Amino acid sequence: MELLSEQIQGKVVVTVLRVKGNLDGVSYRELIALAQKEYDASARDFLIDLSETRYMSSAGLIALQSIAKMLRQEKIEEEPGWGALHEIERTGSAGMLRHLKLLSPQPNVEKVLEIAGVKNVFPIFTELAAAVASF
User: Is the pTM of this model over 0.85?
Assistant: First the structure.
């Protein structure tokens, strides 16, 4: 997996994290670490670009939940289990995902979001400009 980070100025500065390759049990911690690094450098609005992510496992879902927790200034668990996946639904229903959005998930990734029951939890955009303007 390759990760790239970019700042785009909209109404606010949006940090775009581009995930190229698989987001799985081997790589999900890298995404969390990059998000944490950007957060520590004052980033507060994140757009996760999944347009080049061929595969995402449940570990990828845990990465998304961990980033959401970070944005709420909650402790990220070192070894999150299945409970973290159930937290995603609670997070979305509480309206807490206005600072974390997804861009162009590939069909395989979108299917994982749908099967996990969280496709409607994360705001999903197909165009970068619309996504940045939504923050």
Answer: yes
